[in-house]
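Changelog note: in this version the structure field was regenerated for every chain. One regenerated record is shown below for reference.
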Amino acid sequence: MPTDRTASRPIRPVGAVAVLVAVLVLTACTTSRSGSQTRPTDPVTGGISPTRAATTGPLASPTTGPPTNAPRQATSAPPRLAADPRRAGLIGDGVFTTVPLAFPATARGRVVPYAVQIEQGIPADPRDFAMQVHATLTDHRGWQGVDHVAFVAVTSAAAAAIIVTLATPRTTDLLCAPLDTGGWLDCFNGGRAVINSDRWFVGSANYGGDLAGYRHELVNHEVGHGLGHDHRYCPGPGELAPVMQQQTISLQGCRPNPWPSVTGG
């Protein structure tokens, strides 16, 4: 099936790094005393990300999203489960393909149109990735029942409120900037739920051998930010973790849980 290329130029890492340094300095100078963050900057142009992108580019912010939730700073490499070690540390070209699969609403509620993109160079079937995302978002344990929303898959990134994006680690860092994803975390930034390909293929030791469950958690957690949910913490030892807990970093004594409905998010 033909794909829709939504970007036309590769990432230039050197320039992007220089811009990120400038962004971090600017952010430090403009952050209020209350700790609220300034709006993310575009890692390609260095300018403020547009509220809704009218053009496409490798790292353009596609839509306005809720307040960005920064992951904790990565201070050391995470524990890893080598579910598919051949696909760790992939390097992409910064060009994205929008998967041309559309699905109607499967629930009642506020309609949330979403698109699925995959970075070219990632050895995965785009249709398979899109189907897994769709299965997660429309599962009865997901956000549709908790937030009374109806996810509708669209084939145009410009028409999406949330773009679920599978990206290589370096590209994830650029898409998430100025958030610190350290090459191994995921994020929601500028309308994108960015899934790090290392996490998608390699998994996390915190989920043991349950790679399928962990993939559900990755999608639900980042899309949860897109719906306006903040991070949560383990309610107590041995209990199920809220899906908005940063389970990739630590379970904090909780048991892994990929679904919003189990603990209300």
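Spot check on this record: The beta strands are 4-5, 96-98, 110-119, 149-153, 162-167, 187-189, 192-196. Residues 113 and 152 are 5 Å apart (CA to CA).
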